[in-house]
Amino acid sequence: MRRPLVTGHAVGYRLERGVGKLAAHLDGTDYIDSYDDLEDAA
């Protein structure tokens, strides 16, 4: 049996991140990707 090229976890992560980016764009705010980015934005 072949292993999938993309795991379900990876798909979920990318989908969640994409939704977050879209929501930030629609709200007119910057998307914060990590805690490091959060500290830089503050």
What profile does the largest beta sheet have? none
Instruction: Count up the helices.
Output: 2
The termini sit apart by 49 Å
- Strand portion: under 5%
Radius of gyration over all CA atoms, rounded: 14 Å
Shape: elongated
Mean pLDDT: 87
Poorly predicted runs: none
Helix share bin: 55-70%
Helix-strand topology string: HH
Tally of DSSP β-strands:
0
Structural class, please? mainly alpha
> What's the structural domain tally?
1
Question: What labels describe this entry?
Answer:
42 residues, mainly alpha
Task: Tell me about this structure.
The protein has 42 residues and is mainly alpha-helical. It has one domain (9-41). It has 2 helices and no strands. The chain has helices at residues 8-27, 35-41.
Describe the SSE topology.
Elements: H1 8-27, H2 35-41
Task: Provide a brief overview of the structure.
The protein has helices spanning 8-27, 35-41. It is mainly alpha-helical and 42 residues long. It has one domain.
